Amino acid sequence: MRTIFYISLVISALFLTRSKDLRDSVVFSMESMFSNVKELSSASDRAEIRNVNADEFDEAVSSKSRVVIVVFYDEFSTDAMSKAREFESAVRKLPSEVLLCKVATSRNADLVRRLAIGEVSSMVRFYRNGSVAHSFSGEVTPEQILKLANSYVQLERNGNGGGQITPLNKNWIPSGVDELAIDGGAYTPL
After folding, report:
1. Structural domain total, the chain
2. Which of 60, 84, 53, 61 is nearest to 71 (CA)?
């Protein structure tokens, strides 16, 4: 409420001032202030990016409402570091249903052993509901990551992201047939 009061006070002062330069500078300041507010409000609609260690890993990947992308990288390899930065800038474009976790392999050796990642300079895994849904190792482009992440986000939005398997109808026997028996590999009615 106080902000609205100040804005109306500045606008009133604009109309009362006779200096065009002052009016232009105040208008410019107001425009930049409103554009910053707009950026802040849309920032919550974007993917979250965080560095994760071994203690936080299980909690981060078990998210039920998000697609979790985990980038494992060797922090002593310049190629792996630059690739991790590329992924980070690409993932910033994704919606809030995506969480990017960056894991430095040298600082989290126990986690790397537990997940059986091995000696790779970089690896990317997608997690849904706590389990690995997709894995890349070696050369992978940010475009591949974006494409796969967008498809998982669409699944989540369409309600197919729960990972639930729908059981088949148990009454699959054709009408008119009461029971089936296997006779030498062929089905014959009893």
Report:
1. 2
2. 84
The parent domain of residue 102 ranges over 48-157
pTM of the complete model: 0.61
* Residue 183 is assigned to a structural domain of this protein: no
Residue in the block written with tokens 């986000």: 153
> In this predicted model, what pLDDT tens digit does every residue of 55-70 receive, in sequence order?
999 999 998 888 999 9
Structure tokens at 80: 């792996």
Residues 25 and 38 in one domain: yes
Q: Is 178 part of any domain?
A: no
- Neighbouring-strand partners of residue 188: 181
CA separation for the pair 101, 3 (Å, rounded): 36
Cα separation, 145 vs 155, whole angstroms: 15
